[in-house]
Amino acid sequence: MKxxxxxxxxxxxxxxxAIAQQHQPKKGDxxxxxxxxxxxxxxSKWNVxxxxxxxxxxxxxxxxxxxxxxxxxxxAGEGATNGALILKALYHPGYTSxxxxxxxxxxxxxxxxxxxxxxxxxxxxxxxxxSGAGLWPAFWLLGNGRWPDCGEIDIMETVGDSSWTxxxxxxxxxxxxxxxxxxxxxxxxTDVTQWHNYSADWTHDSIVFKVDDKVTYTVTRAxxxxxxxxxFDNPKFIIxxxxxxxxxxxxxxxxxxxYFGMSQNTVNKIKAGQAKVVVDxxxxxxxxx
Length: 289
Prior knowledge:
eight-stranded antiparallel beta sheet; globular
């Protein structure tokens, strides 16, 4: 019995260590890393976007507020390794933006534009998020200049169906409802509400998307050039945002009421304070040669 007990303890410790190892980023040749283990968002790395002139028929205004963008220290309760970034959606009927547009919802969006920009590398984010028709969080890269000529790499998007996330590229000749897109279904028994590592290996001639180190989709320069110019040789910045409703969700869920692309159940979830994205860390490393 004692031998069995000790063996069981050893096995438990081994499993625990393995899980912990999975949670830790593989830093290698690190170019950029943030595990959000500070008291507040590091604004030497991140910009907070404020906009009330939304695109894609989205339903939220982005605001710079501790109620929509905040850090949780010692976030073990969330399953994070150290701290965690929270992007939270709020119900705020009648909010008027500086553009004099009215919104019923507020949310958060941050980026590294002009502070931390990159050409090529492996981009990884460990994150989990609420599900619900019309909740539209994303982890993506964007170039400077006019869209879509600047190039966009969507590493992780979900529009509320918890069973899959999408990968996509947008550039000149392949944008909007781009032909370069793929729905990556998560393994049975898992979904977007659980922790996953979402990543892309971006090189001179290809972009390889992965979930938990498993390849989901690959786009090559030749594939893109069937439609237009390869728009991925220029520096790009990281964006983390939490959109609500809009064209992409509506294209999937066909919901028009009570809000375009967003169901009543999702509105109820936002009102209850249950609509949030939790980010453990963001890591950029050089591609191994």
